[in-house]
Specification:
Structural class: alpha/beta
Strand order of the largest sheet: 2-1-16-15-14-3-4-10-5
Shape: globular
Strand content: 15-25%
Number of helices: 14
Number of strands: 18
Number of domains: 1
Largest sheet: 9 strands, mixed
Length: 421
């Protein structure tokens, strides 16, 4: 049997519970009676994109270095190129639904389909059939998976020709009307809130005083940055240290001459991306700064609502801004429940360091860890597939019929030859 750790204190599963220590009935009650929120971090799609590693620390070290400005500019561009190759470029395959993306898109699709069915089954007259997905990831997996399955979602953009980011687009209730008898039924809607921006966000300068965020359908800016990077590679420092970047070792490798024109063009193109940069400075423009804090405020407001739940997956809580928001909400709102799915048993210790039990007075932050492996068995990892099948699927399994009268979703992800369902 797996353990559930509540604020670092191990708790044995109750009789009749799932192997993870939380019974389907308990989870069913939570999702039936609570405002649903999810916080998804970089660990969730890491099997496809890889982890961010220490890129943020490395960029911060470069910024605080006493090296010459031209040297720091080349080192910074080299680290950004490493980040771009690892995290941003793969999104071109995602939007094309390349065969390489089949696993990650299918995983997200199963997760979203399960949540969609849970929302359909909610019969509360008070709570809307909505779920908020907050994510620090800048990738396009959620958008592609949601659109692929025809699930309604709001991502903050309004308009068709040149969708413009508008916070008023969130929290829209959508109804469908039957063609014959005009019977109306509420449709589940996911609010997709990308706290750190997205590779699909393009900053458009309408005037010196006005900058808008436009949705870049085909990731044309990512392709532009890719071309600029390819032209600049010979003038950048190659980084091949896996997920660790040694900023101190890179600085001596940088030329002391002026920044090459190719590197400057890459930097200019990169800075137009609508993402929060992975460094302590974080922001490239005022509009991203303002948008970031508006989305953080929205996150905090949702956690302050009575009877809210926040499910966390793939998020390390090393981002102090978000960690403070969650801990503060858990302290001030005793009706809030925070359920953190630890990817591995060893992750629990790291969470305990960042959120010690002394910081949470209401004992409403739960760390759920995978079961201890039997002799000789490999350690189980709480991937998104495991969380979906072991935690959320049982909420609707057996209790309700397997078929849904109103909406059945079909997952189709193209391969190079044929399709898979």
């Amino acid at each position: 049997m797996a353990e559930v750790s509540i604020n670092g204190v191990p708790h044995k599963p109750v009789p009749g519970s799932l192997a993870n220590g939380i019974s389907p009935d308990r989870l069913r009650t939570i999702v039936q009676d609570s405002h649903l929120n999810f916080l998804i971090g970089a660990g969730t799609p890491s099997s496809f994109f890889g982890l961010l590693g220490n890129v943020e620390d490395a960029l911060t070290q470069v910024a605080e270095s006493t090296a010459a400005d031209d040297v720091k500019a080349v080192v910074k561009a080299s680290i950004q190129a490493y980040f771009f190759d690892s995290v941003l470029t793969p999104n071109l395959k995602v939007v094309e639904r390349h065969a390489d993306t089949e696993d990650v898109l299918t995983s997200y699709a199963k997760f979203l389909r399960t949540l969609n069915r849970i929302l359909l089954k909610r019969h509360s007259s008070i709570l809307a059939k909505q779920a908020n997905i907050f994510t620090t990831n800048v990738d396009m997996v959620f958008e592609v998976a949601l659109e692929q399955m025809g699930i309604d979602f709001s991502d903050g953009f309004s308009g068709k020709i040149r969708p413009r980011f508008d916070l008023g687009d969130f929290n829209t209730i959508r109804l469908r009307m039957a063609s014959r008898f005009e019977q109306r039924s509420e449709v589940p809607v996911f609010n997709l809130v990308k706290i750190h921006g997205s590779v699909g966000w393009l900053q458009e300068h309408r005037s010196p005083e006005r900058t808008e965020i436009i949705f870049d359908h085909g990731l044309s800016l990512v392709s532009e940055v890719q071309r600029a990077l390819d032209a600049a590679r010979g003038d950048l420092i190659a980084i091949t240290d896996g997920d660790q970047v040694d900023a101190a070792a890179l600085i001596p490798k940088a030329p002391t001459s002026a920044v090459p024109a190719t590197v400057a063009r890459f930097t200019d193109a990169y800075d137009r991306l609508g993402i929060v940069n992975p460094d302590k400075r974080k922001f490239a423009t005022t509009v991203l700064n303002e948008t970031y804090y508006e989305l953080i405020r929205r996150f905090a407001n949702e956690l302050e609502k009575e009877n809210s739940v926040l499910f966390v997956h793939g998020f390390s809580f090393r981002d102090e801004h978000l960690r403070d928001v969650v801990v503060r909400a858990a302290r001030s709102n005793p009706t809030l429940q925070v359920i953190v799915f630890c990817y591995s048993r060893t992750d629990l210790a790291e969470y305990q360091k960042l959120i010690p039990d002394t910081d949470v007075k209401n004992t409403n932050i739960l760390f759920v860890v995978p079961p201890e492996p039997e002799d000789g068995a490999a350690e189980m990892k709480a991937s998104l597939d495991v969380v979906t099948s072991d935690y959320f699927v049982p909420i609707i399994a057996d209790k309700f019929p397997s078929t849904d009268q109103r909406i059945e979703l079909d997952i189709r992800i193209p391969r190079e030859e044929g399709t898979v369902v």
